[in-house]
Design a protein that fits this description.
The structure holds two protein chains of two kinds.
Chain A (H helix, E strand, L loop, with lengths): L1 H14 L3 H14 L7 H24 L4 H11 L2 H29 L9 H23 L9 H16 L1 H7 L18 H5 L12 H23 L3
Helix pairs in contact in A: 1-5, 2-3, 3-5, 3-6, 3-7, 5-6, 6-10
Chain B lengths: L2 E12 L2 E12 L3 E5 L6 H9 L6 E6 L6 E4 L11 H11 L4 H14 L15 H13 L5 E5 L7 H16 L3 E5 L12 E6 L2 E4 L8 E7 L3 H5 L6 E5 L2 E7 L3 H10 L3 E8 L1 H7 L1
Parallel strand pairs in B: 3-7, 3-8, 5-6, 6-7
Antiparallel strand pairs in B: 1-2, 1-4, 8-9, 10-12, 10-13, 11-12
Helix pairs in contact in B: 2-3
The chains are: A mainly alpha, B alpha/beta.
Chain lengths: 235, 282
């Protein structure tokens, strides 16, 4: 798996396909912090949503690198389909982690915050950033070229899923009581936002942990679905 | 000889087209098998199913050795690879778990044998079709597989590389590799192939040496096509200018001729053709 992760990162670098998502990310973070002074927790929470969207975009472009025949050849070398897909997703995650590092460090280095970043706030923000990158990757995997052949369905479907997931809180409020449970199927990208916005940063115990946990459970369910569908959609 | 792979009632259907029908086949260790047939008869599909990279619509593939190493050369090797041959081969070898030292020596040796050494500063996407095909061959043979599957490996190769390939396949066979191969219009593999199978209308038939033996072409008239279609001995059937062109193995030709006469049909011509002639005219 290590060899395929290295191959994928090397190939992605040579393809130049990384340029649109990564430059967009750098610009968005740069523009977001163009006004100083910013609140730490809220700013990192917004950065996490940007990471969610960009991770999804990265996943789509990395999963489109290999032609179907090349994919078949590599699956044979690796000795398993799941190893192939997991290596690809780990490669995407590694790129996302680099972006997270940038999103985390940039405002600290350039003094964009109105207060210092405490260890607790830093830790919770990093966890939120990492969890949302995993969610973005797992959501996008289902709309990737592996599962959806048509580019319109693929990018159209992913855009819709992202918009719905960002609007989930509004959708929850707008729905009548008996339909509110339907929002459980929406990717929980926004679920940690109100919790973080209302957190004063003093104690981690003041935070409701379930929304964080739900992001990971939801992502794992999607990844399981992706691996199952990838096997079935093989000709 | 021990069995290596077993196909059990394999069928494959692509949107209403039944490409393979109920194919059962045992492949033994240390064998070289050719699978022949016209274009679109499902040879590549069968090879992909054997390699485990395509699922049959029904039936099962059993690998008797669970740790089987399979080398696969696709019919069209991908052209858009952004690595040089040795970079690419190194990655593929590492994915297969080949040790770094062995990989370095093996890649150097194979690049030399296929005359790719001088092109190693070029990316694969910049190479010619034949040289890309050579990279495709090397990635499949560098790990000395238990089962080597080659789908039309000669396409685009120059004569020297074809001969080198035959030599390497012979070496691998002696070292215990089972080889499955499809090809067209060539006799270059005759010396190493042990068994030949013919794919026809989605079914497979053992034709021990159909490549070497001749086929009779019987041109007949006044026979109902629906009767002839039922005759299992017919390899191929074609209708032209109210005549039926029947391709049959030599040893079955007398039986077919007498059946035509019994049905009051007339025989317009009888000639001897090869499998390649038959494929070309269909």
């Amino acid at each position: 798996m290590k060899a395929l992760i290295k191959y994928t990162l090397h190939d992605y670098l040579r393809s130049h396909k990384y340029f649109p998502p990564i430059s967009t990310f750098i610009i968005l973070i740069f523009v977001y912090y163009s006004y100083t002074q910013n609140p730490v927790i809220d700013s990192y929470a917004i950065s996490a949503l940007i990471v969610y969207i960009i991770s999804a975009w990265l996943c789509m472009s990395v999963l489109s690198l290999d032609s179907p025949v090349q994919r078949q050849v590599m699956i044979l070398h690796l000795g398993g389909r799941n190893r192939y897909y997991l290596s690809k997703l780990i490669a995407v995650w590694i790129i996302s982690l680099i972006l997270i590092l940038y999103a985390f460090i940039y405002p600290i280095i350039f003094g964009m915050f109105e207060e210092p970043v405490t260890l607790k706030i830093g830790l919770v923000s990093i966890v939120n950033l990492v969890f949302l990158s995993i969610l973005g990757i797992s959501v996008a995997s289902l709309f990737s070229k592996v599962i959806t052949e048509s580019a319109v369905n693929s990018y159209g479907g992913l855009s819709l899923a992202i918009v719905i997931s960002l609007a989930a809180l509004g959708i929850y409020d707008a729905l009548p009581l008996y339909l509110k449970n339907i929002t459980w199927i929406i990717p929980p990208a926004a679920s940690t936002q109100p919790i973080l916005f209302n957190w004063n940063g003093e104690s981690i115990l003041d935070l409701s942990l379930f929304p964080f946990l739900w992001i990971i459970i939801y992502s794992l369910l999607l990844l399981f679905l992706f691996l199952t569908l990838a096997k079935r959609f093989q000709k | 000889m021990d069995k290596l792979v077993e196909l059990e009632n394999i069928s494959k259907i692509y949107t209403n087209k039944n490409v393979l029908r109920n194919i059962s086949l045992s492949i033994n260790e240390n064998q070289a098998i050719a699978i022949l047939g016209g274009n679109g008869t499902g040879k590549s599909t069968l090879l992909r199913i054997l390699a485990g990279i395509e699922r049959p619509s029904s039936g099962k593939v059993h690998y008797l050795n669970k740790n089987i190493k399979i080398g696969y050369v696709p019919e069209r090797f991908p052209k858009n690879i952004r690595f040089t041959p040795s970079e690419y081969l190194r990655y593929m070898g590492e994915m297969s778990g080949i040790s770094k030292d062995y990989l370095t020596k093996r890649i150097k040796n194979l690049l030399h044998r296929f005359q790719l050494e001088g092109l190693d500063n070029h990316r694969i996407m910049e190479l010619s079709k034949g040289n890309i095909q050579k990279v495709g061959l090397i990635q499949a043979i560098m790990q000395k597989p238990n089962l080597l599957i080659l789908d039309e490996p000669l396409s685009g190769l120059d004569f020297e590389s074809q001969e080198e390939l035959v030599k390497i396949i012979g070496e691998l066979k002696r070292q215990g590799t089972t080889v499955l191969i499809t090809y067209h219009e060539s006799h270059i593999f005759e010396s190493i192939v042990d068994n030949t199978f013919l794919l026809h209308n989605g079914s497979i038939s053992v034709t021990e040496s159909i490549e070497k033996q001749s086929i009779k072409l019987l041109v007949v008239r006044n026979v109902d096509k629906s009767f002839v279609k039922e005759w299992g001995e017919i390899l191929e059937l074609e209708e032209k200018d109210q005549q039926l062109y029947l391709y049959v193995p030599v040893k079955e030709s007398d039986v077919i001729l007498s059946r035509v006469l019994q049905l009051n049909g007339s025989i317009e011509a009888v000639s001897t053709v090869t499998l390649n002639d038959m494929e070309r005219s269909l």
